[in-house]
Structures are given as C-alpha cells and as structure tokens.
Description:
With 502 residues, this protein is mainly alpha-helical. The model is unreliable at 1-13 and 479-502 (pLDDT under 50). It has 22 helices and no strands. It has one domain. The longest helix has 30 residues, at 143-172. It is found in: Cell membrane.
Amino acid sequence: MPSAESTQASVHEPAPVRPTQEDEVATAGSELIGGPLGRRALLGTSWWTPVRVVALVAIGMFALGLVQKAPCYHGAWFFGASSQYTKACYSDIPHLYQGRGFADGLVPYFDRLPGDMPYLEYPVLTGLFMEVAAWLTPSSGTIQYQEQWYWMVNAGMLMVCAAVIVVCVARTHARRPWDALLVALAPAFVLTATINWDLLAVSLTAAAMLMWSRRRSLASGVLLGLATAAKLYPVLLLGPLFLLCWRAGKWRDFGRALTGAVIAWLVVNLPVMAFATDGWWQFYKFSRERGVDFGSFWLIWSQNTSNPPSVAFVNTAATLLVLLCALGIAVLTLSAPRRPRFAQLAFLIVAVFILTNKVYSPQYVLWLVPLAALARPRWRDFLIWQACEVVYFLGIWMYLAYTTSGDAHKGLPTDGYHGAIAVHLLGTLYLCVVVVRDILVPEKDVVRRAGVDDPSGGVLDGAEDAFTLGTRLSSPYPAARTGAPKAGWGDRSGAVPRDDAP
C-alpha cells in the first residue's frame, strides 16, 4: 500500500513524460529500436536510467562525429586546402596548434605570435582549455603527428563536455529526462562538435541552467560567469533572468546570480588583464574589427552590392538590432498571459544574437541545441531546424571548396551558398516563431501540458506575478518542491518507473 506522503506527492507532481506517448515523431522513430516503451519495462528500476542512457547515446554519437572527421585526420588537414572542404571534415583545432604558437610552447596572451594575429583571439578560459590540451600533446615527432594528437586530445576533452551537456539537460527538466535525446541525436551537434572549442562554454551554460532549476542561484551565476569567460554569448542569459525575476519579484535570487557571474568572470580574467593586457584585449579587439564573414545575412548583402557596408556600420546596426529584439523580448516577457519559461527566453535571446551577428560559424549551432531542447521539446520542429542546419553545414564547406579549388570550381558557387545561408536563417526563425507562439498561447507549450509551470525556472517555478504590463495573474501551477534531487549520476528521480497497474 502506498504511504500517505507518496499519495500526496503524486497529486502535486506530474508523472515522468514518455515522449513516445506524446510525440508522434518520437513514436514512429522508436520503431527502429523495438517500438514505444512498454508498460512492464524495467527501465528506471535498473541501472539503465534515462540519464545514463542519454549520456551513452551522446558519447556514441560523438564517436560517430569523430569517424566523420577521419578523412581529414588521415591527411586532408595537411595535404591540399580544398579536400578538407569537399570531405566536409574541417576543424580549426589542428590548424591552430601551430598557428597560435602551441607547437612552439608559447604562452597564450603573454607571448606575442609571429603571424598576422599578434595574440590568441579567444576568451581566457577557452585559451586555458587549449593550453591544457597542448600540455597533454606529445612534443616529439612530425608536426603532422603532433597536430593529430592535439586534435584527439581536444576531442577527448570535448566529449566530456558533450556528456555534461546531455546530463544537465536531462536533469534540468527532471520529469522530462528523455528530452536530452534531442541533444544527443542532433545531427548538427554531431557534425560540429569538434570544429572548435564551443562545447566548453555550452557545457558550463547547461550546468548553470541546471543549478538555477535547483534553486542554487549563486552557483548558477558562478557557472554562467565561467561560461562567459569561455565564450561571450552566455552573458546574454542574464537578460532573461532579469526580466523573469522582475515579473516574479525575485530580486534577491537575481542579485545572487549576477554577483556570482561577475565574481567568477573576474577571477578568471583579472590575472590576465593585469599581466597581459594586450593579449587579453585581443579577443574583444578582433570581435570589433572583424569584417562581415561567413553565414550572416550581412554577407549576402555585401556580396550583392557594389557598395558593401563598412565594419563600423555593421557593428552599430547589429548592436541596434539585438537591442531592438531584446526590447521586444522584454515586452513579451512582461505582457505574456503566463510568465515565459526561462529556457524559452534563453533560446530566443541567443537566437537573436546569432541571426543578427556579422558572422555565423557552423559550430555556433551548438549554442542553441540544448536551449532548443528545453524550450521546444518537440521532435518535428527540432528536426526541421536541424535539417536546415545540416544544409548550411554542407553549404559552407562546398562554398569554401569552390573558392579554394582554383579553375576547377569544385563545390558550391556564391549564389548557392547564399541559398544555404537563407535556409539556416529561415530554420532558426521558424523555431523562434514556434517558441513565441508557445509563450503567447501557453496551452500549446508541450512542457506545461503536464500541469507544471517552469521546470527550469528554479525559484520562478510556480511563483506569482509581482509585476506585469497587463493584468496581474496568480500562477495556476503548484510550486516546485524545494528539496529537489541532486544532479548525480545515480539519482533516479528522472527515471521512468514501471507501470504494472492494470
């Protein structure tokens, strides 16, 4: 017989969600592995918890991504510029081992580089990540051998980041652990994971969102500050937190998160700022002075006019566009029928930054994948967007093959590449529109259909409104439990229990 406490908890806590029961695409896809989860499945009462399953799937898919890079590993990175593009296996990692002085033992930010780039153009925590990988790389053998080792060491470290990401996504919405499969199986995630070092910042951001969902606002802020020390985009998440805490009147929690973020960022950056000022400033200088580059709508404009916009104009215009869109998100947040979920606003603000930026490198999709899985865990919409990103992934490499193959013109001409950019832009806009619709019509939000408010919202989950631009509304959802389970590997709170009832 169940206890009174368990009976009461079951009234207030929705049952774990099985995607094969609510998502027709997931149901159809499950036929590849034997069909939807059965009523007497042992999953959740054995070692095979959902978190462990998605982590192993992510590692397996990451390994497939390494196999996809094999043609370059075995020669295309080193012999002929165009072959690494025609085989779609390019990576910055081996090229920058020598190009940024790691092969010569130069210290990032402190030692000046001999080439056109005077210092390493990455944020400090990413530079440390790159340096640690260089320490683990053998210094003997040919430069090709060292570059292969450097890429492999980085790939191992990035695989840990990928596992952290899917575990954090699975734990953030504790009743929807299977949504992390969206991340683990995302084609663009697999294809771009080892192009650059973005997974470090993505993993720290995912961990920050997990801590916020567990009502650990200071820890969340610290992780967000570390993520910003690895890549600039995570700082944008403070905007949604500010708006949501304003609407809910949770100023103390926002203050803790902001304080943690500032302190963590300063702890990482201040030593380099003080003793290698020019090297520290290189990332920000490069970001400001960089011209219009691959993947942006600015490039389409620049390549289709005799009077392309200047870098100064694009910098100003892109900043104004981000601010204008941020203002729209603020109005949406404060006037929506129900307070938007944190993950929804996080996805929107990062997507705005990507859509308006003067460059879109193919690995930038990694920033959005975990946020999309939390904001709109619907396989159809997610796969439509991913298909668009795969088109762009292939498009940029075929375009680079076209521009580097000389008179042979192997690959995709300029007009075709512009089409690939448009597909990427439209796919991301499509997902933004769907998320905004979910905010305006909460009944269409698949997360809230289960009777919850904001599983990733932490103190915001179930909180009443303190300020809105319209009528003040009380939350119709029960407040989340304060004693949330720890985000450990052995915790089975997100597991799907057996259903042996008739």
